[in-house]
TrEMBL record:
Coiled coil: none annotated. It comes from Acetomicrobium hydrogeniformans. It holds the Pfam family Isochorismatase. InterPro entries: Isochorismatase-like_dom, Isochorismatase-like_sf, Isochorismatase_domain. It comes from the Bacteria. Residues 59-207 form the Isochorismatase-like domain. This is Hydrolase. Keywords: Hydrolase. One of its GO terms (molecular function) is hydrolase activity.
Length: 231
């Protein structure tokens, strides 16, 4: 009989988060740290060992940036700009990119200014669950292309949060592009980032993600991306 995996229950007011700048009660949040997640390296304190993003270990997942969702999202044009920057970098660096749509029959397709940057063969995943991982064939869709998954899209406190938590529990290294995710209400977005940072996701600015992928200056890829950083 397999032992019951231990869990950490956060039921307290954490100190003010340095990234989000707010306090948030993480009440009865059950976060399983065992099973597949347990095969990731940990430091002596129980924290995840720091790591950097590598382009040959990464994939980019764009979640639910759809016509009937995006207009209500706080600071939505900034989110789109950052997603477009991530998509450009992924294309230049040949990083696998995929995208999801939540109930597109009711919420519409991905917005056109994102779709136009996606090659026609870009894998698309249709879902009704808020966590992508709860759809039966999502793991096959995600494949074995990279255990470092960079997430962008909407909404931070719903589909991004649920998907990231499940990916962490399945042993992935999850990176949230903090300028490329959002919610209808700013406080919901910040609260979700707070929870994610406590549970093992790495929260990074878009430029940090891309510069880690690039690794060094002077390359063709770096020169190709440089003009986009100046926009």
């Amino acid at each position: 009989m397999s032992p019951t995996p231990p869990a950490i229950i956060y039921n307290r007011w954490p100190k003010e988060n340095n990234i989000t700048g707010i306090k948030f009660p993480v009440e009865k949040l059950l976060y399983l740290k065992q099973n597949k997640y347990d095969n990731q390296p940990k430091g002596g304190s129980g924290q995840m060992t720091p790591y950097t993003l590598k382009k040959n270990r990464s994939q980019l997942l764009i979640i639910d940036v759809q016509e009937r969702l995006l207009p209500a999202i706080y600071d939505n044009m900034s989110i789109v700009r950052n997603i477009k920057l991530l998509l450009k970098a992924a294309q230049v660096l040949s990083i696998p990119t995929k995208y999801t749509e939540q109930y597109p029959k009711g919420l519409g397709p991905t917005v056109s200014n994102i779709l136009e940057l996606l090659p026609t063969e870009t894998p698309r995943f249709e879902k009704i669950h808020f966590s992508c991982c709860d759809e039966g064939n999502f793991k096959d869709f995600l494949g074995q292309e990279g255990k470092q998954v960079v997430l962008a899209g909407i909404e931070t406190h719903i589909c991004i949060l649920a998907t990231a938590m499940d990916l962490l529990n399945d042993g992935y290294q999850v990176v949230i592009a903090i300028e490329g995710v959002g919610s209808r209400r700013k406080e919901h977005h910040l609260a979700a980032l707070n929870v994610l940072s406590q549970c093992g996701a790495m929260l990074l600015p878009t430029e940090s993600i891309i510069y880690q992928w690039l690794s060094k200056s002077g390359t063709f890829e770096f020169k190709e991306m440089l003009p986009f950083f100046k926009e």
